Amino acid sequence: MKTCPHCGTRWEDDCCFCQRCGAPLPPPPPPYGAAPVPPPRPVYPGAPSSSTYLVFSILATLLGCFFCFPFGLIGIGGIVYASQIEGALGRGDLAGAHTAANRSLIFTVLAAASPLIALLFGLLAGFGSIFGWLFW
């Protein structure tokens, strides 16, 4: 049974408006034991997508670890920051979500670039040893 908040008249649960005064009736209570429905998360235009950053940071970490093991682990920082984006958006912290996305991007780029940096370092070290042998 619903009670009208305006006039106090009791009505059946299937009524939406009080038939005496016309005031809207509150929705019926959920059945006993039913899980409460969480409110929908607000949508922020221009918010970063955590799934996109997470996928790219995982791929960059795997690529970096495959070609240059110790330096590829830098990508773990990208994974950690990418996982923080969704939590910041859930709290309504849009600036925190952008900060986590930017930091994730930095670590992801470093992890993806680590094999290239190692290759360049190896080439320079190799040329140095070759020229050192020639002039020794």
Instruction: Please list the strands of the largest sheet in the order they lie side by side.
Output: 1-2
Largest sheet: 2 strands, antiparallel
Contiguous uncertain segments of 5+ residues: none
The portion of residues forming beta strands comes to: under 5%
Overall average pLDDT = 81
Number of strands: 2
Strand and helix order: EEHHHH
Q: Into which percent range does the helicity of residues fall? A: 55-70%
- The multimeric state of the shown protein is single chain
Distance between the termini: 99 Å
Structural class: mainly alpha
Evaluate the radius of gyration.
Answer: 30 Å
Protein name: CD225/dispanin family protein
Keywords: Membrane, Transmembrane, Transmembrane helix
Transmembrane segments: 53-83, 104-135
GO cellular component, one term: membrane
Would you mind describing this structure in some detail?
- A hairpin with a 6-residue loop joins strand 1 and strand 2 (10-11).
- It is rod-shaped, with a radius of gyration of 30 Å.
- It folds into 2 domains: 1-31; 50-134.
- Helix 1 runs antiparallel to helix 3, helix 1 (50-67) packs parallel to helix 4 and helix 3 runs antiparallel to helix 4 (94-134).
- It is mostly helical and 136 residues long.
- A two-stranded antiparallel ribbon has the order 1-2.
- Helices cover 58% and strands 3% of the residues.
- It comes from Bittarella massiliensis (ex Durand et al. 2017).
- The chain crosses the membrane at residues 53-83, 104-135.
- This is CD225/dispanin family protein.
- It is found in: Membrane.
- Its main location: membrane.
